[in-house]
Amino acid sequence: MSASTGNRRPTIAAVAQAAGVSVSAVSHVFNGRTNISPETAQRIREAADALNWRPNLAGRRISGAVGNSIGLVVTQSEESFRRDPFFIRLIAGLTGPLATVGWSLSLTVAPEADEAQIYRQWWTEQRVDGFLLVDLRTKDPRIPLLRSLSATAVALGPAPAAFPAVTLDDDSALTEVLDHLAGLGHRRIARVTSAPGLAHSRKRDRALSAAARERGLQVKTLAWNENAADPVEELLAARGNVTALILDSEALATRVVSHAQDLGVRVPAELSVLSWEDSWVSELVRPRLTALSAPIEDSARHAVDLMHRMVRGEKPPSVVVPGRRLVVRESTGPVPT
Amino acid sequence: MSASTGNRRPTIAAVAQAAGVSVSAVSHVFNGRTNISPETAQRIREAADALNWRPNLAGRRISGAVGNSIGLVVTQSEESFRRDPFFIRLIAGLTGPLATVGWSLSLTVAPEADEAQIYRQWWTEQRVDGFLLVDLRTKDPRIPLLRSLSATAVALGPAPAAFPAVTLDDDSALTEVLDHLAGLGHRRIARVTSAPGLAHSRKRDRALSAAARERGLQVKTLAWNENAADPVEELLAARGNVTALILDSEALATRVVSHAQDLGVRVPAELSVLSWEDSWVSELVRPRLTALSAPIEDSARHAVDLMHRMVRGEKPPSVVVPGRRLVVRESTGPVPT
DNA sequence: TTGTAGGCGTTATCAA
DNA sequence: TTGATAACGCCTACAA
Question: Which nucleotide minimizes the distance between its C1' and the CA of B37?
């Protein structure tokens, strides 16, 4: 198992020798102890730099240190992983905050069938200090699994109390969306969801129905059928007398507005379309999508913070991130007369 | 530095005790030795499962094991990282092959100013076993840096001989692109690039000019100015009598076709647009983009394979991945008469 | 087929 | 202010 490529990497002993001190002196310097004289410390640092040495993470870990990496296991199909701008924003948003605490992101995209095995392995072999849970499902098997492993985890989105969660303030967003549509005269709207098993989807369903009733709006739910020959066509055919569609994901919403024109349905003249997520893609399609923006970078920052505190033994409370905002573009308009 | 949360994780000793054997017996089983009797091995495995134990990666590493993780450091701005479907495809393509060898991907997105520091740190602290280099620039400072660190690296795209590289077969792609445009009657075309400093950009420039000359085509280069009030408008204004545009990146190309219509330039009636990269985004815009597809997943697989072999001490040769193909959609058409 | 013992790189305790 | 030394979890010669 040893590297076949010749000479070893420098160790703390090499640095100690180069600086003419003991290994513990070097260790002290690199662990922020203040008991080493400035001159000695300086000499040690120079020796370390000259040898390109930094404390070996594995050595550190073996002697009790904690906090290197958090795990993100995505079990969407590669296809939907690729098409969903959410993930790339999340990833980009995570790495900055992680870097400031000296951690990194361990990422994998895998089929759901491998999910349990990956969590189990990454945790037991101590590859990661904790997991960031996304796409929580109702009755999510990861919850009991991670509990049984005594693993550290932070959820992104609504989660059972077992783990602290970072959630978006969807309630105020909902108000904004319904007021916008009602103000345009819409009375019959539909929510379209592709993944009814997701926890946030269910929660959103209930909240939407309640808020709609208050305003005298009729809301129904339409299912997205990815396996249809033309999912957009099927959806449009099934819409009945609905005048506005709220799509759960941007991936879906963009496909609907792009393709509706091909199918002879004018957006927003005949049908308004609104996306529950927003990104640059919403600005790319024509008509541009009216969409609900989300402070994903804020969420990522909070998630890292929660993880950081948990790893240090705290039990931080969940956080709700405010700042969702409806970005009105061209895909919503007055109800057809 | 020790975890404050109570009882420790199980160790190899606990498993050995539970199975009634010595620690080395356990170690042997988990390292594929064949010298343990099937019954004993079975008992050991069961004990390990019961305790949720797997060999601690840090322990393994400290005793000479190698191969946990490869590093991917992206120094695009977060904005262009997010807008470029290439990265998400790359990431998704990497994790599968990595998982099959038991590795994971350590990812970060950081400003270019932090680049050297990150590479240096990740390598010296032995966080990763090697780096995957993307977006190589001409005179890329990472090359001498990684050489001086004796770091392992594999390049994606043209690279100096210092490191093995995985490159796409751009030559045949180029032929296909020029034949397509020439066949439509185009004689004056322009290549648009946003990042002239990238190595692949420069290489492509030379190849394109040469191939164009052979066919009697005029090629000029236009620069994308992201800082302009309206980059698309500026680009269109600067195009002169050019009848076809080849955009280096899909992010740019999609913006051009989407926005050209707003600006009254009809694509492809007045101007043909072709993208050097392809993804689902090219199908989303109207007109759909004619684009050059790339076998990114194949590249990812080769990159992992090269890394895997290098870490084991081999010196594998570079590979050229075939399979680029021009996907003709709606954004290219006959030259205007 | 199984077990003993030494070593891997680092940190922390405690003594000098 | 510095240094010697015993962990930490695991692997591998080598001995039994």
Answer: C1
